[in-house]
Specification:
Layout: H1 22-27, E1 42-48, E2 54-60, H2 62-65, E3 70-75, H3 76-79, E4 83-88, E5 93-98, E6 104-105, E7 111-117, H4 120-129, E8 131-136, H5 143-146, E9 159-162, E10 174-186, H6 189-195, E11 198-206, E12 218-223, E13 229-233, H7 238-249, E14 256-260, H8 276-286, E15 290-293, H9 296-302, E16 309-317, E17 323-335, E18 357-365, H10 379-397, H11 401-408, H12 428-439, E19 450-459, E20 466-472, E21 478-482, H13 490-502, E22 509-513, H14 530-557, E23 564-570, E24 576-582, E25 585-591, H15 592-603, E26 607-613, E27 621-631, E28 638-648, H16 655-674, E29 680-681, E30 684-685, E31 703-709, H17 731-743, H18 754-761
Parallel strand pairs: 1-15, 13-14, 17-18, 21-22, 28-31
Antiparallel strand pairs: 1-7, 2-6, 2-8, 3-7, 4-5, 9-10, 10-18, 11-16, 12-13, 12-15, 16-17, 19-27, 20-21, 20-26, 23-24, 24-25, 27-28, 29-30
Helix pairs in contact: 7-8, 10-17, 13-14, 16-17
C-alpha cells in the first residue's frame, strides 16, 4: 500500500514547478540528436521504394559507388542475412525482417539501399544514381480491400479465415491477408439482442495518423577499434535501442552504449530501431562515424504511425437505457508486418457493466509501413467506435448521453465481464460528473448550427522495471540519476518526489540522465508508465538516502535520531538551503552541504540511496470530455468552440504538468477527429509533407477547461496513476456527437472533413465516404 498523504502535508508534491529543462529548451542550449557531430563523420541516406508493391528485377549501385565522396553503398544482397529486430515494449511483440527489401517491396518508403558519403548532399546524389528495374504489383490500400478474395497476397505467412456471420463483410465468405486475430465472447449475445427494444449498428472508419513529432528520427553511430559501439540518438528508450541493435547485428549488449539526447517528441513512435542498425553497420564497415537524420518526407513514408481500423459495432438497448448486448468486428490496418493493436476492439466493453459481449478482431496486411503506438495504442480507434455507437443508442431512446453512461457504468467494488477481481480505486462516475459540472451540461445552451458532444475513454497504465539512484554531494545538492528519457516533464516530477522524501528544497535537486553504460536500467517512456514505475524507483531511492542521511546527522550531532527535524532556510542571495537540526535548537544543526562533507570524511564517498521497481498493477482511469462545435451547413466546415475535460490522475504531483498533458492530448484527439489522416492511393502516400498533412494551429484550438479527480492508486507513488494517454481517447467520439447535435447527421468516417459533412447533409449532390 502506498503512503498517500493529504496534500496539505506536502511542501513540494502537489505544487506547480516549472520544468527543470525549460531554460535549456527555450534558449536553444538543449542538444538534440541532429546536433551531435564527430570528426570525420559520414552522412548516410536511404534509397526508399517509390512504389507500394513491386518486385525488384535488378538493382545496380555501380554509378553511385563511382561518385567522388561516396564511401560505401549497401543493399540486402551485400550484407547477407542481417535482419532488423524491433523490440516493441508497448505491444509486446518481436519483429524480425531483412534490413532492406530483397526481391519484393511491400510499401512506399521501404528501404532498398543505403549510401554513406562525406556529405549529405553527395549521399543524396548517390542515392539518385542507383538504378532499379521494377515489376509493379497490385497494391492494397485499406484493410477492407485486403480481405477481399481478389486482393493480392502480400506475405506468405498471411492466413485466410472464415467471415464472421452478420458482419458487413459476411458475404465475402472468407477473408484474406489476415496476420493476427483476437476473439472474445461471454454471455448470450443473441438472447441479449432478442431482449432489446432497439438495435443500433454502424461501421466506423478511423484513418492512420502519424505521431508528427517535431524532431525526426536521428542517430550518430561510432564503432571503436575494439568493436565498442556508441550511438547518440533520439529515442523513448535507450535500453530498447540497445536491444534492437544487438539483435539486429549480433552484437553483445555489453558492447553497445546508447546515449539518449533531448527528444523532440515521440508519442510512442520512437521506440523501435528505425535507423539505428544501419548507422552502426555502416560505421563498422567504414571505420568512421556515420550519421542519419530523416527528412519529414521519410518520416511520413517510412515511419511507424498509428494503425487505421474499420470497426463494426452492434448494440442492443432497452427503452430504460439498459444495454442488453454488444457485438463488434474490427479490421485493423497492420501494414506490411504484424503489430496493429487489434485487442482494442475489446473496448466495446469500456467502463460499463455490459454482460453479453462478442468481439472478433483481425490484423490485415496492407501495402503500408508497419505501425506503432500513438499515445494510447489502439484506444482512440476502439473507443471511438464504442462511444460513438453509445451516443447513437442514447439518441435512439431519447436519454441524455451523460445519464445513459452513468446508468451503465461500473463502480468501485464491481466487476466488468473481463475483470477477475472487483475494481478498486476507480472513479469513473466521479470523473464524468466532474466534467458535466465543469461544462454546465444541464444548463448548456447553443445557437443555431452549434452542438454538444460527450464521450469517455478508459486507459490503464502499464508498469515496467526500472531503478534509480539518489546521492547527496559535498555541496548539499541532491542528484537523481536514472536512464529514463524525459518527454513529458517527468524529470521535474522526479525532482519533486526526491525533494519531498529526503526533505530538501526543490531548488537543491538535480536530475541526471545516464547512458546505457552508466545508468541503472529504466523502463521506456511510454504506456503512461514513467511516473508510476520510475516514480516508485525514485521514491524508494530517496527513502534509502533519507535513512542514511538521518543516521549520519544523528551521529554527527550526537543526538538520538528521533530528536532531529528537517528545515529549509533562505541564505544570503535568496538561495534556499536544506538543514537538519535538533528539534527546537537551530544552533545545534548541520546543513546538507556539511553533512555531505562529513560523509566524504567518514565513509569515503557521497551518501547514496538506491531504489528499484519491477511490476505492480495499477487501476483503470477515464478521461471524460465534452466538446462544443459549430457546423456551417452550406459548406460542411466546422469550428471547435469549447472543450471541457476531467481526468482521474490518482494524485497530481505537478498540477501544471498535469494540465499540460491534458491539453496536449485533447488537441491531438481533436486533430484526429477533425483533420488528420494519412492518405494512401495506389500504394502511394499523397500527403507526405506538413504542408499537406493537416495539423491544428493555435487558431484551430478552442477554449479548453480542465478539471481532475484524485482517487489514489494503491501502488503508484503517492497515489499516482498514469495520465499521458487517457486524454486522447474520448475526443474523437465527443466531436462526432457534437457534429450530429449541430448538423443533425451522424458521420462515422474520420476525419470529419467538410466534404464528408457536406455530402451527409446534401446527399443529392453526390457521395463521399
Amino acid at each position: 500500500m502506498t503512503d498517500v498523504l493529504h496534500e496539505r502535508e506536502y511542501t513540494i508534491l502537489g505544487k506547480s514547478f516549472p520544468r527543470v529543462d525549460a531554460v535549456d529548451k527555450v534558449t536553444g542550449a538543449a542538444r538534440y540528436a541532429a546536433d551531435v557531430n564527430l570528426p570525420g563523420q559520414l552522412w548516410a541516406k536511404f534509397l526508399h521504394s517509390p512504389h507500394g508493391h513491386a518486385r525488384i528485377k535488378r538493382i545496380d549501385t555501380s554509378k553511385a559507388e563511382r561518385i567522388p565522396g561516396v564511401v560505401k553503398v549497401i543493399t540486402q544482397a551485400s550484407i547477407g542475412g542481417a535482419t532488423q529486430e524491433t523490440l516493441d515494449t508497448v505491444h509486446g511483440f518481436r519483429l524480425s525482417q531483412g534490413l532492406f527489401a530483397d526481391d519484393v517491396v511491400r510499401y512506399q518508403g521501404e528501404k532498398i539501399a543505403c549510401v554513406a558519403a562525406v556529405s549529405p548532399e553527395i549521399a543524396k546524389d548517390a542515392v539518385a544514381a542507383i538504378e532499379v528495374e521494377w515489376e509493379l504489383l497490385p497494391s492494397v490500400d485499406t484493410e477492407e480491400a485486403g480481405i477481399r478474395p481478389d486482393a493480392p497476397d502480400i506475405r506468405d505467412d498471411a492466413k485466410t479465415v472464415p467471415a464472421i456471420p452478420g458482419s458487413p463483410w459476411a458475404d465475402l465468405g472468407q477473408w484474406k491477408n489476415v496476420v493476427q486475430e483476437a476473439h472474445y465472447e461471454t454471455g448470450d449475445v443473441e438472447a441479449g439482442f432478442a431482449e432489446a427494444d432497439f438495435i443500433l449498428e454502424d461501421v466506423y472508419r478511423i484513418p492512420r495518423v502519424h505521431q508528427t513529432y517535431i524532431e525526426p528520427h536521428a542517430c550518430l553511430a561510432k564503432v571503436d577499434p575494439s568493436g565498442k559501439v556508441h550511438c547518440w540518438t533520439s529515442t523513448q528508450s535507450i535500453f530498447a535501442i540497445r536491444s534492437g541493435i544487438a539483435s539486429s547485428l549480433g552484437i553483445p549488449q555489453s558492447n553497445i552504449n546508447v546515449i539518449g539526447q533531448t527528444i523532440g517528441g515521440g508519442f510512442g513512435g520512437k521506440f523501435g530501431t528505425l535507423v539505428h542498425p544501419y548507422a552502426v553497420l555502416l560505421a563498422q564497415l567504414t571505420g568512421r562515424p556515420v550519421k542519419i537524420v530523416y527528412s519529414r518526407e521519410e518520416e511520413m513514408v517510412d515511419g511507424r504511425p498509428a494503425p487505421g481500423a474499420t470497426i463494426w459495432v452492434k448494440t442492443g438497448v432497452k427503452k430504460d437505457g439498459t444495454v442488453t448486448a454488444r457485438q463488434a468486428v474490427g479490421l485493423w490496418d497492420s501494414g506490411n508486418v504484424p503489430g496493429a493493436s487489434i485487442g482494442a476492439t475489446g473496448r466495446i466493453i469500456g467502463v460499463y457493466k455490459f454482460q453479453n459481449i462478442k468481439y472478433d478482431a483481425y490484423g490485415i496486411y496492407t501495402n503500408k509501413p508497419g505501425t506503432s503506438a500513438y499515445r494510447a495504442p489502439g484506444a482512440p480507434q476502439g473507443s471511438y467506435a464504442s462511444e460513438a455507437n453509445l451516443n447513437r443508442c442514447a439518441a435512439a431512446i431519447g436519454m441524455d448521453p451523460v445519464q445513459f453512461r452513468l446508468q451503465n457504468m461500473v463502480e468501485d467494488g464491481e466487476r466488468r465481464v473481463t475483470d477477475k477481481n472487483p475494481l478498486r480505486c476507480v472513479a469513473f462516475k466521479e470523473t464524468l460528473r466532474s466534467v458535466a459540472d465543469l461544462a454546465g451540461w444541464d444548463q448548456r445552451a447553443k445557437a443555431t448550427n452549434e452542438g454538444w458532444g460527450v464521450a469517455v475513454g478508459e486507459w490503464t497504465n502499464g508498469a515496467g522495471p526500472g531503478s534509480a539512484v539518489c546521492s547527496l554531494g559535498e555541496d548539499g545538492i541532491l542528484k537523481v540519476f536514472s536512464g529514463c528519457m524525459d518527454i513529458t516533464g517527468t524529470d521535474t516530477a522526479f525532482a519533486q518526489i526526491a525533494a519531498e522524501v529526503v526533505g530538501v528544497p526543490f531548488e537543491t535537486v538535480r536530475v541526471v540522465r545516464g547512458d546505457t553504460d552508466s545508468a541503472p536500467y529504466a523502463t521506456g517512456s511510454g504506456g503512461s508508465v514513467v511516473l508510476f514505475s520510475m516514480g516508485n524507483a525514485v521514491k524508494r531511492a530517496a527513502e534509502d538516502l533519507r535513512e542514511k542521511l538521518l543516521a549520519l546527522a544523528a551521529q554527527h550531532l550526537e543526538v538520538d535520531r528521533a530528536e532531529l527535524e528537517q528545515v529549509h532556510e533562505r541564505a544570503e542571495g535568496g538561495r534556499v538551503l536544506g538543514k537538519i537540526q535538533v528539534q527546537g535548537d537551530p544552533d545545534n544543526s548541520a546543513t546538507l552541504a556539511e553533512l555531505g562533507q562529513v560523509a566524504l570524511r567518514t565513509t569515503g564517498g557521497p551518501l547514496v540511496g538506491t531504489g528499484a521497481f519491477a511490476s505492480e498493477p495499477s487501476h483503470p482511469v477515464i478521461s471524460a470530455q465534452i466538446v462544443k462545435m459549430r457546423v456551417d451547413p452550406d459548406t460542411g466546415v466546422m469550428e471547435a468552440l469549447e472543450l471541457h475535460q476531467s481526468l482521474d490522475v490518482g494524485f497530481a504531483v505537478n498540477p501544471y504538468e498535469v494540465e499540460g498533458q491534458m491539453e496536449g492530448g485533447a488537441v491531438q484527439g481533436l486533430a484526429w477527429s477533425w483533420m488528420e489522416e494519412m492518405q494512401i492511393q495506389g500504394g502511394r502516400n499523397m500527403n507526405n509533407h506538413l504542408s499537406d498533412y493537416r495539423l491544428p494551429t493555435p487558431m484551430d484550438t478552442p477554449l479548453i477547461k480542465n478539471a481532475y479527480v484524485e482517487v489514489a492508486s494503491e501502488n503508484g507513488p503517492f497515489g499516482v496513476k498514469g495520465i499521458g494517454e487517457p486524454v486522447i481517447v474520448p475526443t474523437l467520439a465527443a466531436v462526432q456527437a457534437a457534429v450530429e447535435d449541430a448538423a443533425g447527421v451522424w458521420v462515422n468516417d474520420l476525419p470529419l472533413t467538410p466534404e464528408r459533412i457536406y455530402f451527409a447533409l446534401h446527399p443529392q449532390n453526390g457521395a463521399e465516404r
